[in-house]
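ugh ok so i messed up the first submission bc i forgot one of the chains. this is the corrected input, ALL of the components this time, i swear. 520 residues overall. if the numbers dont match what u have on ur side tell me asap before i send this to the collaborators (the ones from the other lab, u know who)
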Amino acid sequence: MNNNGTTFLKMNNVNVFYDSIQALKNISLEVAKSEFVVLIGANGAGKSTLLKSILNIQAPKGSINFKGKELTKLHTDEIVANGISIIPEGHLIFNSMSVLENLQLGTYHGKKKEQSIENIFGYFPILRERKEQTAGTLSGGEQQMLSIGRGLLSDPELILVDEPSLGLAPKIVNDIFDILVKLNNVGYTILLSEQNAKKSLEIADRAYVLETGNIVMEGQADDLLNDEEIKDAYLGGSI
Amino acid sequence: MSSTLMYFLGFSMTYILMAWSIYLPYRVKHLHFLAVATMAVTSYMGGILSVNFGWSFLPTLLLSIVIGALISYLISHTIGNAPTFTVVIVGITFVFIIKTAIENTDYLGGTIGLFGIPVLDHPLIILFAFLLVIGYFLYRIDHSRIGRAASVIFTDENLAKSMGIKPKQIGMLFQTISGGIAGSAGVFYAFFVGSLFPDFFTFHLIGTLMTILFIGGYTTMWGVIPAALILRGVPMILPSSIASWRLLIYGVLLVAIIATKPKGLITKKMLWELLKKRSGS
Ligand SMILES: Nc1ncnc2c1ncn2[C@@H]1O[C@H](COP(=O)(O)OP(=O)(O)OP(=O)(O)O)[C@@H](O)[C@H]1O
Ligand SMILES: [Mg+2]
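and heres the new structure output, hopefully the right one now
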């Protein structure tokens, strides 16, 4: 793990409750700058809740530190302004707006709009071709690309990606994961939540395994890929 | 021009103005009935200023816009990010506070009403020109970064926040603009009708505006225009015995539309497709 002075993202003893139900229990997790970390867990394990707690969409108890700032004291929009972006589960895009308008939503913060949208088209050439098309008519994979593109436009350093493979064909999932690797290579730090353990462990540096709100295992992605328990619980029979 | 037609157009345009002042905050799910209370305040203010102090129309109009916006701005600090229900309750509370205050103030004519406000020579032309200005302004807002952000807030407030949008800021802005528009509507009303009654600015007006917004459609600013004309016009051609059931008819219409076309008669999607078809052929 990277320990050269400044921590990037560090969650310490984080608990999250939905009314009386505890969805996250004493979560401690770190992500170093430029790392690619994956969060593996089954349905309802708490992956989305964990990502939402970082942005204070779902209020956390405990401490979440990002580049020396305590995030639990900030509002969501301030956290976004500090350089964290979320690509929400189920590629939430605006069906009746055009592709371009959907992207413009991501530039709400201002700063060099035209140029940033051009950058996004560099990563996703298909979106340039479709920019006048209504977003609702895009394919699932294209919608996911649009969602990722929009998330990049707030100028983040850390991107939280929530189950991008959801409902997509294996071939498309590969494309999306390739893009995530590419983004990581150009310097974005990535925290990915996934049920697709095999594919995500293949591309990530490190991993955490989440079960009913607890982190039950953590380690280098390669090690987990060869771990017997993980194989039994998460890799058995998957492609 | 026959006076019936003049009243029809004048009332319709005033209703369009008021419906727009309700439409804009509803872009972020705020049913801002404070606008109705604001309209009452500025219409009485305009009446008093002209009758007792000899103010002319234009300065009265400008002052009423400022006062209207100011009232909404101050209150938006507490309800700029409140749930729909809270915004409604606060608005209705103010509507009744203002009504009670007027009824108990002899200077304002109390329950009897305030009379003798000098009406404008060419109210329709001025009103129409003003409507164009406000319409253009709303159109620009709707098609701006802020308008798009409002659509996100309407759909999913958390998603909006995670895009760096500040719902409270936009809520406060829309409520303030709504107050300014309602302020102007008050003065137009006073200078068009010439007499004011506290009862006008209550449930009757709230009901009419809600009907206009939800029947016309709240997803685009254009829906309220035909809705205001129809809702104002239909009772006029009905025999007066039926016309007095107007609010009931509105209610039935409202329920029927909400049940069959929940977004109203005119929707953004519909306009989109219309536009596309035209540019296609
Ligand atoms: N808004 C909510 N209110 C109450 N409970 C919730 C809410 N959202 C999530 N939960 C509960 O919190 C737990 C964790 O949910 P979460 O959505 O974080 O899981 P997840 O790992 O993302 O699952 P999935 O893979 O299905 O997306 C679940 O038991 C879920 O039922
Ligand atoms: Mg989830």
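quick check: The longest strand of chain A covers residues 21-31. that seems consistent at least. The CA atoms of residues 104 and 150 of chain A lie 8 Å apart.
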